[in-house]
Amino acid sequence: MAPSSTHTEITTIVENEEDYPKLVAPQAAPRKYDIVYFNLLTFGYAHLITLYGMYLAWTTATWKTLIFNHIIFMLAAVGVTAGAHRLWTHRAYKAKMPLQIILMVMNTLAFQNTAIHWVREHRMHHRYSDTDADPHNATRGFFYSHMGWLLVRKHPEVKKRGKFVDMSDIYANPVLRFQKKYAIPFIGTVCFALPTLIPMYFFGETFNTAWSIAIMRYVFNLHITFLVNSAAHLWGGKPYDKNMMPAQNLSVSFVAFGEGFHNYHHAFPWDYRTAELGNNWLNVSTKFIDFFAWIGWAYDLKTVPNDVVRSRAARTGDGSNMWGYTPRDKTE
Length: 332
Ligand SMILES: [Zn+2]
Ligand SMILES: [Zn+2]
What we know:
Blueprint: H1 37-59, H2 63-89, E1 94-95, H3 97-110, H4 115-127, H5 142-146, H6 156-161, H7 168-171, H8 174-181, H9 183-203, H10 207-229, H11 231-234, H12 250-255, H13 262-267, H14 284-294, E2 298-299, H15 306-316, H16 326-330
Antiparallel strand pairs: 1-2
Helix pairs in contact: 1-10, 2-3, 2-4, 2-10, 3-9, 8-9, 9-10
The structure holds zinc ion (2 copies).
One zinc ion binds at residues 125, 233, 246, 262, 266.
């Protein structure tokens, strides 16, 4: 009998990852999408309110409410980039307790699940990039990698291989354990209740306006993170590794606080700058970490030497412009 599909029936208990077939990107086996209706409804609601919030932002909301929400937007974004991403997932630098707490609260403002959950998914994203074990496999296109993956049940490969991701450092982190333990009341208060109540009590906003603008801000935060998974995996040059999907995307870096230098990031995920550029004006998250390094709360910042970057580019790059680190090089 000839093999009829790419699916493998697992009939024995598999303990080691090596016992599973190796996944080579880009890879996406045919699949049936099992929609999670709760997520579809909540996402749909949040996006409708976002449209309404945009209307209220132009017509009714006070400038104080808008500035307040913009500040939360920036804090939340950096809570994802400098916190969940660079510190906790990639361990690209170390942070003392006060900074861990600040980042956890900022990360809570963004509510992208708990940071513990986020780290597991992102470690899988790097380990199995653009295959079925990557939670937001970009091989399935823009919409799936952007937000579609959150509207359907996880691919079986994600469930199967999730247990091979080492999470011991994360489970040992008391700050992240706190966020997970009190997730519903804590995230509910920090991300939604306070950002609604503060404009009501201090800026004289109605509940309707304060709530709609808060939800709009939350949805904007989600989409800038989503763009790193979608646009930065689909469009851009690949000066460091032409054999992968992640690419250098300047527009994404602009909106995502310095996280669009994605070909570099997948080539050198441990660099705390998430970019070859270092401290440039797009990389707000790097400036944030540098500030805390200056006062001593961030330390052991990891970077990649320029000659290592250059030799990787010569070996596996596509020859496209390394606009990233050229200016710094020229001064050397
Ligand atoms: Zn990626
Ligand atoms: Zn990453």
